[in-house]
Amino acid sequence: MSTTAAQAMVAATARLRAAGVDDPARDARVLLAHAARIEAARVTLIAPEELSHEIAERYDQLISLRAIRVPVSHLIGERDFYGRRFKVSADVLDPRPETETLIEAALAEPFERVLDLGIGSGCILVTLLAEQQGAIGLGVDLSEAACLQASANAVLHRVEGRADIRCSDWFAKVDGQFDLIVSNPPYIALDEMDGLATEVRDHEPQMALTDGADGLSAYRSICAGVMPHLARTGRVMVEIGPTQAADVAEMMRAAGLIDVVVLQDLDGRDRVVLGRKS
User: Fold this and answer.
1) Reduced to 3 states, what is the DSSP secondary structure of residue 105?
2) Beta-carbon contacts of residue 249 (< 8 Å; ≥ 6 apart)
3) How far is CA 76 from CA 36, 90, 210, in A?
4) Residue 171's beta-bridge partner residues?
5) Which of 7, 56, 171, 180 has its CA 20 to 30 A from that of 216?
6) What are phi and psi of 210, to 5 degrees?
7) What sign results for the dihedral spanned by CA atoms 108, 138, 146, 239?
8) What is the distance, to the nearest Å, from the Cα of residue 90 to the centroid of all Cα atoms in its chain?
9) Alpha carbons 10 and 7: distance in angstroms, whole number
10) DSSP conformation letters of 122-180
């Protein structure tokens, strides 16, 4: 029996709702667009049309995966961030809107050399290089798969000539000094992992989410090694979990950074801590 796109979407929405997915209608629409290989805005146009067997099968598979909480971004292979589309996979943390707070803070002052610690998908470094045309950057990550993903995104957004991406444990393979050092490190404490959404806990890389301890290990490593790599008036800024501002700000001050401030995201939660060398 043939099914129209509209009927398939209604059935898919019901399946996702029954599975407890947050916004089932939106996900059903986005995944139908992906199955039909069209832009999401065009789904309305194909609504009265019958789905081909091939598209219907592909759609059914996507909905089955979404029902067991595989993130939409992993199913379609991309995610929007700061006005650009980034390729993502299960090997990297999904770019998130709250990280745009860090981007805004970084772009508030010019910079020529930027270091991204824990580059992941590359969304931070690639965005900063795309926005600051004259800048060059280095991105490091312990995960080789993340470095490959970041490199692909650098090529996608045509900044690969200005981006050096290396496999490194924090500062281990970093040389030189930078005007700007940024990081969105793993900051979820081990005892908070069970409270995460299934999509995050079961489908995003553990090493990008948690340090397996109190959630502050990465900041200790960054603060311990940051000073030799900051240029004279250089800035360092890190994304944090909403309860970590006081601890991270204190670490920065103890490391010798000055003018330490905490910035809130659009929801009013503490999101970024930044400090200066001098």
Assistant:
1) helix
2) 260, 262, 273, 275
3) 12, 12, 25
4) none
5) 180
6) -135, 150
7) negative
8) 12
9) 5
10) SHHHHHHHHHSTT-EEEEEES-HHHHHHHHHHHHHTT-GGGEEEEE-STTTT--S-EEE
**Cα torsion angle, 186, 190, 192, 196, sign:** positive
Name the one residue in this structure whose structure tokens are 């939660």. Answer: 269
- Asked if residue 157 lies in contact with residue 84, where contact means CB atoms within 8 angstroms, the answer is yes
Can you tell me whether residue 186 is helix, strand or coil?
A: coil
pLDDT tens, the chain, 278 aa long:
678 999 999 999 999 999 999 999 999 999 999 999 998 889 999 999 999 999 999 999 999 999 998 889 889 989 999 999 999 988 888 899 999 999 999 999 999 999 999 999 999 999 999 999 999 999 999 999 999 999 999 999 999 999 999 999 999 999 999 999 999 998 888 888 888 787 777 777 787 778 788 889 999 999 999 999 999 999 999 999 999 999 999 999 999 999 999 999 999 999 999 999 98
End-to-end CA distance of the chain: 71
Say how far residue 174 (Cα) sits from the centre of its chain: 22
pTM value > 0.90: no
Residue matched to tokens 């929007």: 80
The identity of residue 49, as a single letter, is E
107 membership: H or E segment, kind and range: helix 100-107
The token pair at 227 is 């000073």
| Cβ proximity of 147 and 119 under 8 Å | yes
The letter for the amino acid at 253 is R
